[in-house]
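Possible regression after last week's pipeline update?

I re-ran a chain I had predicted before the update to compare outputs. Posting the input and the new output here so someone can diff against the archived version. Not blocking, just want to make sure nothing changed silently.
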Amino acid sequence: MTLTVRGRIVCATHVIDDAVISVDGERIADVRATGEWAARQPDSMVPPFSGTVLPGLVDIHVHGGNGSRFDTTDARDARAAARFHHSRGSTTVVASVVTGPVDEMVAQITTLRELAADGTIGGIHAEGPFLSSARCGAQDPRWLRDPDPGQTERLLAAADGHLRVMTIAPELPGYDIVAQRLREAGTVVALGHSDADYSCFLRELRPDGPARLVTHLANAMPPLHHRGPGPVAAALVAAAAGQVVVELIGDGVHVDPGFAALAFATATGNVALITDAMSAAGMVDGKYQLGAIPVTLRDGVARVADGSLAGGTATLLECLAWAVNAADVALTDAVLAATTVPARAAGLSGIGDLRTDGFADLLIVDDNLQLRRVLRRGQWLR
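New output (post-update):
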């Protein structure tokens, strides 16, 4: 049976003010202007106008939500975290694990590969352990280490082809060997949690280099300065040239709206909105966990004991709305940054747009970008 959804359709490259999406099973069968749809099916009742229809959102950097975590060996808990984000409009999530003992990371990734294999998550992101101790943020500094080929092989084997992204600091000894191995394995190399200078960071973002993504731009790296531009400037230069995608946490806490406006003005089409959400997303103030690190949520902001931010607590739709309303980003650019761009950056196909033969992932929002309904793989979640 074909399901139909009518509304203002925001696609990757254009907007159709009034169109009908036809869904057959898990896939989109057709996207057509309502007048044309009605002319082709004169005996069918035109479906009611439902609001603005966006592609299912794609969050490529998320640690958990609603009290559940991805850095776990409890598959039920990880599935609960995925379901929470699915129901809030992020129909595809790449589950992130943080730095810990390599045996623990292997066990967590082994658990998550089951979810990746059955389509619950879009893949796995290893945020660590090859990160700078000077820019560890909420990562556990006890387990940070230089890039190690043997440990890399263990993580790749545990993921069994589902390690979509790995974040590494490019200034660390051994980066070149590990980054090249990840590239050969089909894993996207992301630069982040780095204390590198401008030249080092830009060099590793060269067109023939292995890195194609920058992890949460401006967070866990030296700040932008006119006499020491650092990795922030290098990332924006590379993104403006189309060489790399930069992640941006659009929760109104991690970056100022003015910085978000700068990133979009510099590199529209190469900015990926992310949540970096942890288990406290969707929860009340209290005590939570990120890896082995205790986290306190107060007034909706998650921090570790030293005051460092400990991931986000927003949903990706809330980040998209913040980009539009606070940073004055055009709706089409913000939607692109929450759908097509992250899907491309993580090497995910069939998602991130509303087009024939793509997965039937969509959400319906009102004029204020408040969520009404979510369709994932052709099934209504709400």
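Follow-up from reviewer: compared with the archived run. The CA atoms of residues 107 and 318 lie 32 Å apart. Marking as no regression found.
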